[in-house]
Specification:
Length: 262
């Protein structure tokens, strides 16, 4: 484990700056959060359903996902989390976990004890409000996923997921042009979107055939943003990016222009 003094917490700063403006003092305060850093292998639980955690985690590298295993062994993935995300911040107030959190690939995580997080929020009240805003955006993503699983077909569900992941990576500087890391397997996409692996495979072939995406060596390239956005019925409002960041510009780019803006 690596102590806080040697930890690079810039992913957290970039994430929060994608949704709200931070002062120099706030960036410095975030960079000094007392954490312990651990490297975990792929497919390793960070916290399990029904655990009573005493700390929350920040993703520094890799990819993390929330999930629940139902009776009979079926798994539902609720969300994917990229560097800068704090996917279990709700454990500050909800003492018992109602789902599990695990690594999808080899990942580096910074762990912050609840006591230290509470002290930090009391000492930096505006940053406490910003963490609250981030949690509300997290809930907005849940609502959008629910709408997609309930009302979109497979083609739109997968296109929408790719639009979301692309914009989130782009907003925090983790995209390379129109490409971003995509180590998520077809089975994991199926578990997230309520689709069989066969259905996911067939739909990915269709998205490629339509010239919307290219996948290669764990990355996904968006070949036609407008086409992918239309296919996914994607409106990025729910991500609540700042207007003056890369995410904010993508938000404006992602929405349909009104006649007066064309």
């Amino acid at each position: 484990m690596v102590p806080a003094s040697n930890a690079n917490l810039q992913p957290l700063v970039r994430k929060l700056e994608s949704i709200i403006d931070l002062s120099v003092e706030e960036r410095e305060a975030l960079a000094s959060l007392p954490v312990m850093v651990r490297k975990l292998k792929a497919d390793q639980d960070i916290v399990r359903d029904h655990d009573r955690p005493s700390q929350c985690c920040l993703v520094l590298e890799g990819l993390v996902f929330r999930y629940k295993v139902l009776e009979g062994g079926k798994r539902q993935i609720f969300s994917f989390h990229i560097p800068g995300d704090v996917p279990d911040l709700q454990s500050l107030h909800l003492s018992v976990m109602d789902h599990s959190l695990a690594t999808l690939v080899d990942s580096e995580l910074a762990f912050i004890t609840h006591d230290n997080m509470r002290k930090f929020i009391r000492s930096h009240t505006r940053l406490g409000d910003i963490f609250w805003r981030d949690t509300l955006i997290d809930a907005a993503v849940f609502r959008e996923w629910m709408a997609g699983i309930g009302r979109r077909d497979a083609y739109a569900r997968i296109a929408h997921l790719f639009c979301e992941l692309f914009m989130r990576h782009k907003a925090v500087g983790l995209a390379n042009g129109e490409a971003f890391p995509m180590p998520i397997t077809q089975a994991e996409i199926g578990d997230a979107l309520g689709l069989s692996t066969v259905h996911v495979n067939r739909t990915l072939q269709e998205l490629r055939r339509d010239g919307l995406i290219t996948t290669r060596d764990g990355t996904l390239a968006v070949d036609s943003w407008e086409g992918l956005r239309e296919a996914g019925q994607f409106d990025p409002t729910y991500l609540h990016f700042r207007q003056d960041t890369g995410g904010g510009r993508l938000k404006a780019f992602g929405r349909r222009l009104s006649p007066g803006e064309r």
